[in-house]
Amino acid sequence: MFLSEAETEARLDALRRQRAALDRAIAEHELYLDLGRRLARPAAAEPVRTAPVEPPRPDPAPRVSPETPRAEPAPRPVAEPVPAAARPQEEPPAGTTARQEGRRLMEEAEEILAEAGRPMHAAEIWERLAARGLTLPGHDPVAALNTRLWKRAKGGTVFRRLGDAVYGLAT
User: Fold this and answer.
1) How far apart are CA 106 and CA 158, in angstroms?
2) End-to-end CA distance of the chain
3) Can you name the residues that pair with 166 across neighbouring β-strands?
4) How far apart are CA 62 and CA 110, in angstroms?
5) How far is Cα 126 from Cα 148, in angstroms, rounded to an integer?
6) How many other β-carbons are positioned within 10 Å of the β-carbon of residue 119?
7) Residue 160 burial by CB count (10 A; 0-12/13-18/19+): exposed, middle or buried?
8) Does an H or E element contain 166, and which?
9) CB neighbours of 149 closer than 8 A, spacing ≥ 6?
10) Is the pTM for the entire model greater than 0.70?
11) pLDDT per residue as tens, the chain (171 positions)
12) What's domain 98-169's architecture?
């Protein structure tokens, strides 16, 4: 019994999907294996050998003959007070700017979804955010954005998760 052309094409498509899934699984396992090896390497490699630490030797005091008069230290100049307007601005506490950037990013994402009037994939949202000059740290900004949107959608904010990396506004 022979297969029809349509049946053969359908089986080929199914086999190609299986091969793609296997390739992804292989790549994922290779990545985890490589990562595990990298993380284990410092501990599993040679034990760290440290040289014995010697206490610091005191510097020999300069010999001063009784006839040599000691020089008196020069007077230090007195610093004049700097007016407040000329002082440098104090840096905000660590993490404040990152939080502000994160809030701005989510506000812009909300605005993009509102302008579109439809649910959007995280990649589409990221394209529009990048066009507005916003950035995200990391190797995969779409994944980082997806994670942020997903967390906020779980928290009951204005975002609503409608599918894999697809978000809309809660109404």
Assistant:
1) 10
2) 57
3) 121, 163
4) 71
5) 12
6) 15
7) middle
8) strand 166-169
9) 106, 109, 122, 125, 159, 161, 167
10) no
11) 688 888 888 898 899 889 888 888 888 888 778 777 877 765 544 454 555 555 656 655 555 555 555 566 666 666 565 555 555 555 555 556 778 888 899 999 999 999 999 999 999 999 999 999 888 888 899 999 999 999 998 887 889 998 888 999 987
12) Orthogonal Bundle (1.10)
Q: Which of 139, 144, 140, 138 shows the shortest CA–CA distance to 105? A: 144
Single-letter residue type at 56: P
Spell out the domain ranges in the chain: 1-44, 98-169
Q: 167 with 161: CB under 8 angstroms?
A: yes
d(CA 112, CA 134): 13
CA distance 101 to 132: 13
Token digits of residue 135: 């950035």
Buried b (16+ CB within 10 A) or exposed e, 36-53: eeeeeeeeeeeeeeeeee
